[in-house]
């Protein structure tokens, strides 16, 4: 800021541009309006001006004036709207009124504003981590909800600083990465009118308006959001934990034709959004949110790449998960492009080559690309894994062949295209849907609290309430539900690929059957830290199974299994079984059982023998014989609270030829020298 500040914004059709300067974030009017001269302050599409001796902390907006031409060009220029700088790195939404920005008239008193701040942050030698995804255990979490509950006990609930206080908990859990739900500044007022009338807000944050600015609502001091975010990143890195951001590049908070004018609509509506071919006043919507970003327009591609580079270079994040990423695969005509410029630019960027890139490989208009997302380095949320494992654990018959494929890293989807097990992000729950507790407690969604008459949210949940819908005093049902939760966690951690755990599942958190809590910034969504004690049995089981995974490189292979010996081993890398050795029930439409023997990947790593019984009766499984070695019980989901035995406490089985696995149970054996 020495000497002044250079301002620059893009607008193709603007004929006049004004820069509004405000003394503070609550100033109703600018203290100065600078009118830019197009002969001096415009170069091609870009308007720019250097302001000398500008005080640090000044707030600002733009006004763009010119001829709107909705039907022919799609231009929505409106000189009455105070516009947010799309490149702002610190913003204030304290005065924001979405309704005022959605109707005709001046909204200067209630617009979102950018702020000019010096950037001299001391990173203290911090750098982005590089933990290979093949070794990762990802934990999806919401920044605000993780510590906002009164039970969190942190000094600043619901903030980046609050999370810092809970890093020891995450470290002890054993996760390697947190995946933060949207932290780029978003519009909390973006909810349907009936929902807003209930006093609810956009809690999840999938309504971005500022792609370079952290959300001020997650900061202790809104003006320090950028540095408070960096403090959190540094703290995570010191603990050896990477940070992945959930980014929403598919649409913006401006919505459709009736939505607010924040920035893009006025500055470059015809550039930033997909518009109807014949009537450019209408938006083509592939996201279900009113608009779709025109990601493969050259200027938009550059804007999005610059945003990613900013978060890696200036904010030190370790990767990104792209919401509705298939929308980014659509060309300017709306049709899917396998060689979509923005996706390949992300994949091939030298500056992003160590950043993890994860796609939610579908959009809201029917484009489903799981297993076929453009590129090679992209990992994908494996929705097929989720659905198959849910069906198997609830007891659906005839799935064992596909279950084996999913457990082995979904080679049918990835290997033929030269991809790897780490391309599959395995999960059974995520923010969008039931929690693990609710997955085993409800057959149907219960979203009445959202104000949409239970029409919102998924109906295809593949859940099982274990005999009673919702809360119950039936002790047997309660035991079965907790056992089913242990089964899900065990299968997830025993699968090739990258496991992702939903925050709160490790303490059996419930949302009372609501599978779409996007608008519930309250105790329905928040992490209740009292559950750490009341459901400690679940927490300890999850910790122990994560630890088992992380001590077995054979569960974290970076290449697909072959069924043949490798790395100097005498055993095949994997052998499949049913209740009888070497006889898996691939073609039995009634089967609910599966077993496999997994050889060690490195020297001295003990083989594992894993048995799944999702039937309602006990099954006896034959055990393989390995010369000079015996089997020891490592995991059993059947006992109260589950059983995970560390290596130093294991003992050889008294009957090494067979093992009885109870109904709805998972058992893991580790091989030890006899």
UniProtKB/TrEMBL annotation:
Q: Does the keyword Hydrolase apply?
A: yes
Gene3D superfamilies from the entry?
Answer: Glycosidases, Golgi alpha-mannosidase II, Immunoglobulins
What SUPFAM superfamilies has UniProt attached to this entry? (Trans)glycosidases, E set domains, Glycosyl hydrolase domain
Please list the residue ranges annotated as the Glycosyl hydrolase family 13 catalytic domain: 140-549
Give the matching Pfam families: Alpha-amylase (PF00128), CBM_48 (PF02922), ISOA1-3_C (PF21156)
Q: What keywords sit in the KW lines? A: Glycosidase, Hydrolase, Transit peptide
Fetch the CDD domains from UniProt. Answer: AmyAc_Glg_debranch, E_set_GDE_Isoamylase_N
Say which family it is in: Belongs to the glycosyl hydrolase 13 family.
Q: Write the protein's name.
A: Glycogen debranching enzyme
Gene that encodes the chain: glgX_1
